[in-house]
Each structure stands twice: as C-alpha cells, then as structure tokens.
Design goal:
Blueprint lengths: L13 H8 L6 H16 L4 E7 L8 H10 L5 E3 L2 H12 L3 E2 L6 H6 L2 E4 L2 E4 L4 H15 L3 E3 L1 H12 L5 H7 L4 E2 L7 H13 L1 E3 L2 H13 L2 E7 L2 H11 L6 E8 L13 H6 L3 E11 L2 H15 L3
Parallel strand pairs: 1-2, 1-9, 2-7, 6-8, 9-10, 10-11
Antiparallel strand pairs: 3-5, 4-5
C-alpha cells in the first residue's frame, strides 16, 4: 500500500475521513484509521461478544455523552469500568462540574473546597455529599437484602438516576451488564460499605464472575475496545483468555507508555504472550488522549452503521 493524501471537503463525513486515515501512512492517524476498521468489523459482527472497558476519569468529562450514546445504541454487550465511573455518573447527573485548568493553583482550590481532576473542577458539594445521599436513597428504596453483584447494583443506580445523560441509565435500560471489579475504590463503594452494614447489604462478586464466565465461554468471537488502563483494562483481558485464545479483535486507546512495564501502557502484542489476545487477532494501539479520539471513532461508527 502507498501513502495516500487526505482529501477534505464540506461533504466529507467522519466515517469517510476515518477510512481515508487508514491509508495516510503516518503516524497515529493511520492507527486511528485502523482502529475504525477493526471496530466496524467488531460492532457489526453478530457472533462477536463486544466489550467496552474505560476508566472513571473519562466520565468526569463530556466524553460521558459519547459513552452513553454507544450504549444507547447497544453497540457493546458488556462494560468493565471503575468505581470512579459510577461516582462521576451520579454526581454529574445530580449536580454539575466546571471547566478548569491544569495550571490552577491547587492550594487555592483546596481553600475553596474545589477538587481538581486534570482540567475539570469539581465543587465538594457536587461530589461526596451527592453520592452519599444517592446511595442512601438507593439502599432505602430498592430493598436490597443481603449480597448484591456489581452489575445489579449498577442497573439499580441507572434506573434510579433515570436520566438519558447517564451511561448507567442506558446500561439498565438495555440490560448491558456493568462489571466493577474495584468497586470499593471510590465513593459509591465506600458508601455501600458504610451504609450497607446497617442495612444488611454487601457486595458479592460471585454472580459477576459467573456471568462473565458464561459470556466468555459462550462467545464464538470476542472483541474489546479498551480505553485507558488500570483494573478495568486488566479485568477484561483476564476474562478474555477463557473459552478461547483471548480477544479476536482489540483496540487500545491510551496515552500511557509501555516502558515502565505497567499494564496501562502495555500494547496488545504483550497480551498475546499471556493468551489474553489471540495471536491471530486484529489489533491496534492508539497512543492518544481518548477525549480527542473516541468521539471521532464513535461518530464514524454511528454514520457507517445501522440505526
């Protein structure tokens, strides 16, 4: 294949641009184009289990709307994420965050009771207090008695939030399981532990594991869009090794580096050595900020697929 120039115009759609980027030759742009081709194959393959994993920080940004739209359209069958994603989905549904700056004075922000998440400002009253109130109301109203799985807890949160802006709402509405392996590492998990002691509610991962096991062993093919790293990335990859040779299609999007040996920066080829990505898999690594790349890929998928 030869390097081909991009040809732009008012009539060019995101899907057309992404298809052209596949042949542009350099550098991450070509990888974004490859990601689009793999995702199209994954999304429209009815025999492929389509998994989405992402980190919680992304939900604190406007990227939440992209994630919610992908799930509204049922483009993924399962979600693996962190407790932070639940925290921010609740907090942004019931309150609001402000645009900030990486260069802000954190000591001044602390004096004003403003948390900084990168370039997002979160007022204290818009976060912890809101989540504490929502978890209390959920436990009071839902009638949990005894252990509950993370995916059923997420569905209950989505149902209670009742907002189309919430990604958890669409997971509940479309019965897309949300698995949160590190749920105690965040505000929702803390409140579940704290308040659950009084209400006889606790977390039981066994139902989550049973369901994940069923998904993986029954899947004819498996595909994953892995956004960011950490526990959500590893949990998806860990389970993907069962019932086959790992993911058959994999798209990684992260700004992390691989040379410190961390999982977050590890490329799909490293997962091949662990049998978490198939040696015959179609895979690509996009080293980029997900807030820049994922909206473009999502829009391309929406434009290229069936409504």
């Amino acid at each position: 294949m030869y390097v081909e120039d991009l040809k732009l115009g008012r009539e060019v759609s995101a899907a057309q641009l992404l298809s052209m980027m596949r042949s542009m030759g350099g550098f991450m742009g070509m990888h974004v184009g490859q990601a689009f081709e793999i995702l199209k194959e994954m999304i429209w393959d009815e025999k492929c289990l389509r998994a989405l994993s992402f980190t919680g920080n992304l939900v604190a940004t406007g990227l939440r709307g992209v994630i919610a739209e992908l799930l509204r359209r049922k483009l993924f069958d399962i979600v693996v994420t962190t407790c932070g994603a639940l925290d921010h989905d609740i907090a942004r549904t019931r309150s609001s965050y402000r645009q900030g700056s990486f260069d802000a004075d954190d000591w001044q922000l602390a004096e004003k009771n403003i948390h900084r998440l990168g370039s997002v400002f979160i007022e204290q009253e818009s976060y912890g207090v809101v989540i504490e109130r929502e978890v209390r109301a959920l436990l009071d109203e839902h009638g949990f008695d005894g252990p509950v799985s993370s995916h059923r807890l997420c569905w209950a949160i989505g149902e209670r939030l009742g907002s189309e802006s919430s990604f958890l709402f669409w997971c509940w509405r479309n019965k897309i399981p949300v698995f949160v392996p590190g749920i105690y590492d965040g505000a929702v998990g803390y409140q579940l532990w704290l308040q659950g002691r009084e209400k006889n509610v606790s977390l039981d991962y066994s139902e989550d594991m049973n369901l994940l096991n069923e998904y993986m062993w029954n899947a004819e093919r498996k595909g994953g869009l892995v956004v960011g790293g950490g526990i959500s990335k590893h949990h998806l990859l860990w389970w993907s090794q069962f019932g086959g040779e790992g993911l058959d299609m994999a798209v990684y999007i992260t700004a992390a580096d691989e040379y410190d040996g961390s999982l977050s920066g590890a490329r799909p080829r490293e997962a091949v050595s662990w049998h978490k990505v198939s040696p015959r898999a179609k895979h690509v690594f996009v080293k980029a900020d997900a807030t820049v790349v994922l909206p473009l890929l999502a829009l391309g998928l929406i434009q290229s697929g069936k409504d």
